[in-house]
């Protein structure tokens, strides 16, 4: 196992902790949102700051980056849209009456969740509120979006005639212990998912399989059928709040305040791996090329072999909690409450992991071939025995 005490680059431009880090769809830019009330735009090509977005009157809680526009939300109750080339503020979305916790951009919609107990939908281009989703009894912490086209059969869609103008649905998780599913067009609550006994901190949606995963301060992860609202499974082995989730190839990774990440096989609910070594809560995680990267309240990022659970590397250098990580072109980006963005070279660990995977596949291939020959031999022996016995 290697320790890395020196990042490729340390970016210290922010004057306050970095709360979120977003990567553009084309991978060319990164956006950081900070306690200093500003957002900064970084090039993944040269790791330089190419934009400084100022205008919020309080700290930025979350940010989202598209290829041509950036979005930030703040404790000043507003959301802002920025031009990534000029740095100009293109729009201010006003209406929330408390801290805006989270934003989500989908199609021409901008969704937001707030401490004011509401979620809202805005027109991205017109700076106009389209819908308000009111019904939670406490603040809205996390959001997800999907279309009923992704999950409903044709006959089921016919049953929702009043919603046929728009088939978009918004999912909200709240500190009131519930998850709600809303029709975007009408603001009507389609489902309230009951079962958690603590605040819902994170959501992961798997629309093609009609499944939603929610993590909570009640130490559990729950799986729901997003069409029927039925609770499918409860994952119970964590001993602390479930803070973050990642879904990859029917494997669910969950980071917790109990200082571990667990990997679950979604189809059976079986816990198949536990990743230890963290000295504080696991605040963020990301799967990449067979490696699980984590960020923790102990100020370290870590890399684990996702299959074996073996710790392969520790990235040291931050002074406070790592709030978010991103990966692009075999570089690891870590954003921390210490105000720095650090960039780490992970080519070596990725290369070693690829060699290991190649070797494992080769061994599995030989084992499979041996098994096939063994079965063929046994079948032939079986046939011979049957013939001798006159069967």
From TrEMBL:
Annotated PROSITE patterns: WD_REPEATS_1, WD_REPEATS_2, WD_REPEATS_REGION
Keywords: Repeat, WD repeat
InterPro entries for the chain: Quino_amine_DH_bsu, WD40/YVTN_repeat-like_dom_sf, WD40_PAC1, WD40_repeat_CS, WD40_repeat_dom_sf, WD40_rpt, WDR86-like
WD repeat start and end residues: 11-43, 93-132, 169-192, 193-234, 235-274, 315-347
Claim: Repeat is one of the keywords in the record: yes
Residues in coiled coil: none
Protein name per Swiss-Prot or TrEMBL: WDR86 protein
Organism of origin: Rhipidura dahli
Lineage of the species this protein comes from: Eukaryota, Metazoa, Chordata, Craniata, Vertebrata
């Amino acid at each position: 196992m290697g320790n890395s005490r020196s990042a490729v680059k340390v970016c210290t431009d922010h004057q306050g902790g970095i709360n979120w880090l977003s990567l553009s769809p084309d991978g060319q830019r990164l956006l950081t949102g900070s306690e200093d009330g500003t957002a900064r735009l970084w090039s993944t090509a040269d790791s330089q700051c190419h934009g400084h977005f100022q205008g919020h009157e309080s700290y930025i809680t979350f940010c989202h980056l598209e290829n041509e526009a950036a979005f930030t939300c703040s404790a000043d109750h507003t959301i802002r849209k920025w031009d990534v080339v000029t740095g100009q503020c293109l729009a201010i979305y006003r209406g929330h009456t408390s801290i805006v916790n989270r934003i989500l951009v989908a199609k021409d919609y901008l969704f937001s969740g707030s401490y004011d107990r509401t979620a809202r939908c805005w027109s991205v281009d017109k700076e106009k509120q389209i819908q308000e989703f009111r019904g939670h009894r406490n603040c809205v912490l996390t959001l997800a979006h999907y279309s009923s086209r992704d999950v409903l059969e044709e006959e089921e869609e016919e049953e929702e005639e009043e919603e046929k103008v728009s088939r978009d649905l918004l999912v909200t998780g709240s500190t009131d212990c519930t998850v709600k599913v809303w029709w975007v067009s009408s603001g009507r609550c389609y489902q309230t998912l009951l079962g958690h006994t603590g605040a819902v901190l994170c959501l992961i949606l798997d629309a093609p399989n009609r499944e939603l995963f929610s993590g909570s301060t009640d130490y559990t992860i729950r799986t729901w059928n997003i069409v029927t609202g039925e609770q499918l499974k409860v994952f119970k082995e964590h001993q602390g709040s479930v803070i973050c989730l990642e879904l990859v190839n029917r494997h669910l990774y969950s980071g917790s305040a109990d200082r571990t990440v667990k990997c679950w096989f979604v189809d059976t609910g079986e816990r198949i791996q536990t990743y230890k070594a963290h000295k504080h809560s696991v605040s963020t995680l990301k799967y990449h090329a067979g490696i699980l990267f984590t960020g923790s309240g102990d100020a370290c990022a870590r890399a684990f072999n996702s299959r074996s659970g073996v710790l392969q590397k520790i990235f040291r250098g931050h002074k406070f909690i790592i709030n978010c990580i991103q990966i692009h072109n075999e570089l690891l980006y870590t954003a921390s409450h210490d105000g720095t963005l650090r960039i780490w070279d992970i080519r070596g660990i990725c290369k070693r992991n690829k060699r290991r995977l190649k070797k494992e596949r080769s061994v599995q291939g030989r084992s499979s071939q041996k098994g096939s020959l063994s079965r063929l031999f046994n079948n032939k022996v079986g046939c011979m025995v049957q013939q001798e016995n006159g069967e």
